[in-house]
Amino acid sequence: MLADLTLTQHILSVVSGVAVGFTLGLIGGGGSVLAVPLLLYLVGYPNPHVVIGTTALAVSINAYLNLIPHARAGNVRWKEAVIFAIIGAIAAYIGSTLGKAVDGKKLLFLFAILMLVIAALMIRPKKVKPGEMEGNPGQFSMWKLVVSAAIVGTLSGFFGIGGGFLIVPGLVFATGMPMLAAVGSSLFSVGTFGLTTAVNYASSGLLDWTVAGLYIAGGIAGGVFGARLATHLGKSSKGTLNLIFAALVAVVAAYMIYKNMSAFGIHL
What we know:
Layout: H1 7-27, H2 35-42, H3 48-72, H4 78-101, H5 104-123, H6 142-159, H7 164-175, H8 179-203, H9 209-231, H10 235-260
Helix pairs in contact: 1-2, 1-9, 2-3, 3-8, 3-9, 4-6, 4-8, 5-10, 6-7, 6-8, 7-8
Main location: membrane
Protein name: Probable membrane transporter protein
Subcellular location: Cell membrane; Membrane
């Protein structure tokens, strides 16, 4: 099931990891959605299911590492984060089991549709409501938290993504916590969902540990450079980068749809 990659492909795996980590550090999210297409089309890994399992592990480790500075800064609401992660991890296991059973090309086609949704969410103006910055500590709706975690976890496991772009609004919706706390708390779930998916795929031999290690190493280096550059950019510059990245995600998604539509009997 695992591919015998060349030295060039190993180098490209590190480069891909750097690109993902750099994007995450620079604009604060979305970069992990490029992990799958980079490993598929730049590195040239032939097995879509191994790609999803491998990138899930890389995204998980990256999220846990980024959780550390947020935890030190007090940006993590641990009670809500742990509940969301536990419920979501169970759902992620179910979702990843379903994902393994789906034809690889069909899974990639659906993944590309999700990428288009992510691109649209990234360019949508973010409005801060009165009182949102303060939040409402200590009070949250348990049923909203459970339902949100179950939905997001299932999607995260099925597609093998961290799901931060869904976890953050899910936490805000269920708990009313401020955005900064939601971002910090979401990383615990992103890491847990990714690890759950990776373990499920690994149990079926659908995880390349060498490539995962190269991706993680590249992601750590890229994240450091991206975060440093982000500190030197103004708000307007970050907004422009966000638009450019969203456009890139949309273009890659369109390419993936074109490459995999034959799985549904559609030919151009």
